[in-house]
Amino acid sequence: MPIYYKIICSLTISLLACGAAARDWPDWRGPGYNGSSDETGLPEKWSQTENVKWAGNTPGPGSGTPVVSRGKVFITAVDMKNKSLLGMCFRQSDGKLLWSNNIGKAFRNIPRGNMAAPSAAVDGGRVFFIFDSGDLAAFDYEGKPLWKRNIEEEYGNISLNFGYSSTPLIYEAKMFVCVLRRPEPWREPKDRTELDSFLMALDPATGRNIWKTNRPTNAVNESFDSYSSPLPFEYNGRKEILLMGADFITSNDPKTGKELWRYEYSPNKNPRNRNIAGLVASKELIYLPRPRGEDLLAIKPGGSGTLDESCIAWKYEGPCPDCSTPLLYDGCLYVLDGMRKKALSCLDAETGKLKWQGTLSGPPIYSSLTAADGKLYCINEEGKVFVIRAGGEQLEIISEIQMNGKPANASIAIADSCLFIRTSDKLYCISESNRQ
């Protein structure tokens, strides 16, 4: 075959692969780590039968967001009957359960949560599951086991008051696992009484540590605990892994683990300042929702060492989230206080100026907003989905759809012009009925 034909074929395959990947939802916050997607043709309304492409059964709850990659949908679940922790794979086209692997034992009762809170992570050929038990396992896309380890057995109890929920991050050919916890364990096992918080990088192929670095803090009591996940960030050619929790935001070099900078966002040492909502970033700013809905900070990147207040570009002091990670979409930052006022605020992502604010009625919203096709989607604890018009001058709720199965705490995923919605006992694929 002539060399130019080989080049054309290689380019064609690469472009097809890129196109397929662009239609996936490979991270719990989507392809851009910000809760949004470029997908179009998404539904505005549906019912239990209309626009439901398929509905798959799950054996029990799981708070992790569905992850969609190369024609497969991955979720975590607690099998309540058999007291086991499962990694599950459904076929994206029709919802057929392709495999379900038992990864660990469900031996803890988590208040207002479960042991399957982290989402799956993927690298295009392997899928990774982690649970509150410390079980961390890798499989190929056909369900073949590749490796397994238990980081709780290695490094002590990782369970927080409401369970471990940090999702592994796949970035720069590494898997990053974060454990931010108090020095003494919340619950059994309590065989170790001096626990370190840490970030570690693993080889996705083998599960072996590439590096592990401790994360020091002067936090007190519950403020040690972080439920959020690592976030990748790049500024002026410098790649970083951002962590939020234990009163600090920190940045680490993904190659070496070296800490690049830190900022103390909670210097008053409130003993109850555990953080749940996570970070999101644009190209120019890092958005940090301070614990318990205190406010939201926009941090200027590019610093080094210990940063002071000069790193703050602006602050938003309106209703802010305790649980829901902010959404960045089409130049706007959406901030959802799903616990107290149920207030949704739309801010200019560059300046922090409030564009509009409105209220979502009903029970608490523990999930995070997702967006695509000019619409925002979120689901409350009792399974009601809100479809909201993005942008505009005021809150416009397009529709409200009640799904079966509560509690529903997983964020909604978007891929291939479909919505993937997780409730306590179902995984739904929602799409326009006239779409093949």
TrEMBL record:
Residues 1-22 form the signal peptide. The keyword Signal applies. The keyword Transmembrane does not apply. Keywords: Signal. It comes from the Bacteria. Residues 49-160, 199-302, 330-386 form the Pyrrolo-quinoline quinone repeat domain. This is Outer membrane biogenesis protein BamB. It comes from Limihaloglobus sulfuriphilus.
